[in-house]
Structure of Helix-hairpin-helix domain-containing protein:
Amino acid sequence: MKKSIPLLSLLFSALLAGGAFAAEEKVNINTADAATLDRVLNGIGPSKAEAIVAHRKQHGAFRSADELSEVKGIGLATIEQNRDRITVGGGAPAARPAAAGAAAKPKPAPASN
């Protein structure tokens, strides 16, 4: 009787390698909440994830992954480590303070003849 160890080894190797071939989870840095950023991105813990969300709220949507370097504590090495996981899609623009009185008074309608 032949041993089936080579076959078992092959199957076991295929199972282990399957995880390596699976697509990495991606995250949109303009729409993800802090918990998702923390879970998906390597080297980003809860405090850096919160900093990303705060930066996004203050400055508006990120236009590229490289703009994450503007967030304190996030360097280019961390961005490179996560580049395949990061997507940049639409996001809310930054909150801009309205000029004093500009929003309170509507413009008058043009006069009709």
Summary: Strands lie at 27-28, 86-87. Confidence is low (pLDDT under 50) at residues 17-22, 97-105. The two ends are 105 Å apart (CA to CA).
